[in-house]
Amino acid sequence: MAGSDSSSTAAVAAESEADKQLWEKQKHEQPQLVEEEKDRGMNPMDPRFSEYDPKQGKYIYTRYFYRSKLDLGLDLNQESPVGPMRYTDKIFLEGFFQANTMNVVSVKIVASDYGYPLHVYGTIIARDSLDRKRIYMFWRDKDNCQLISSKDDSLILTGPKRGLMVCDAIFFEIDLKVKDVHGMKVKDERLSKGLMEVDGVLRLAYPTMRKVQMEKLVSMHSILDLSYIFVRNAVEGTVEVRILDGPADFHGKIYARTTNVPCDIMLHDTKVNGMLTAGDEGVVQMARS
Q1: Is residue 210 part of a domain?
Q2: Residue 13 backbone dihedrals phi, psi, to 5 degrees
Q3: Residue ending a domain, choose from 209, 231, 253
Q4: Rounded to 5, what percent of the chain is helix, strand, coil?
Q5: What is the pTM of this model?
Q6: Spatial CA neighbour of 112 closest among 184, 188, 192, 214
Q7: What gap in Å lies between CA 217 and CA 192, rounded to an integer?
Q8: Cβ–Cβ under 8 Å, residues 102 and 231
Q9: pLDDT confidence bin for 215, thresholds 50/70/90
Q10: In this structure, is the dihedral angle defined by the CA atoms of residues 240, 246, 249 and 254, taken in order, positive or negative?
Q11: Which residue segment(s) compose the domain that 165 sits in?
Q12: Residues 50-63, mean pLDDT to the nearest whole number
């Protein structure tokens, strides 16, 4: 135990020294940060996981930050290697433990300091209780923006690639930017950036009735709404569309809906993601499964 405590202390000391070196490097490479610091004050948070938010007028967490000794070895840039439908080749006895999950219904930019329309790109990442590694919900680069015409438009999600496990909490890292507004470039491309936490333990005390809930992120130059459904004792399932007869491609939208929740989850929209084309054995490649 003594050896373990000693190594943990050394690891924490190394992290603190790394933070100091990072800040000194930033001041050297970007002298304007020194002037900005005078107006904003020193960042009280770990600079690797935080950033100044002009909309809130304070420093906020923008990435998942280390919360335990187990997290110290976590590579925040690594995508989760776990795929969908892992245990479909097994038979489980009655009473087997089933984890909770959440289905993300939609993500919307409901208010924008720039107005609309917006050409949006960037990432939305989920980190669940299974491994805290990256699970992409939305990922577009600057050359592949999505046009958001109004506050009613939803971002076309492409994930998660597997069911999200919620034992304690799930975290969402939002990092959305705008390429241009009304055909003009903007000085600050950061549209929405921050860390959202959904407490799964707290939601166990809620009524068992499934309903759409919402988390709001007020940051940078917008307000973002993330709608989701918390599901207890969940069973993971994926959706596959297979064309058995007829043309191998078509236009349109595909939604998923459960009997207990009166809302639609969009799986594909050809206006945004392109025409659906059947591949091997007639299986259609949708944006979200």
Answers
A1: yes
A2: -60, -40
A3: 231
A4: 20, 35, 45
A5: 0.78
A6: 192
A7: 8
A8: yes
A9: very high
A10: negative
A11: 101-231
A12: 91
Among 184, 208, 231, the domain boundary falls at 231
In terms of domains, do 152 and 260 share one?
A: no
Answer yes or no: is 285 within a domain: yes
Number of domains observed in the structure of the chain: 2
Amino acid at 173: E
Q: Does pLDDT of 221 surpass 50?
A: yes
Task: Tell me which residue has tokens 């491309």.
Answer: 189
CATH number, residue 161: 2.60.40
Is residue 246 within 8 A of residue 287, CB to CB? The reply is: no
Find, among 121, 101, 63, 56, the residue nearest to 198 by Cα: 101
Specify the pLDDT at position 190.
Answer: 94
212 plus 279 within the same structural domain:
no
Domain identity same for 199 and 276: no
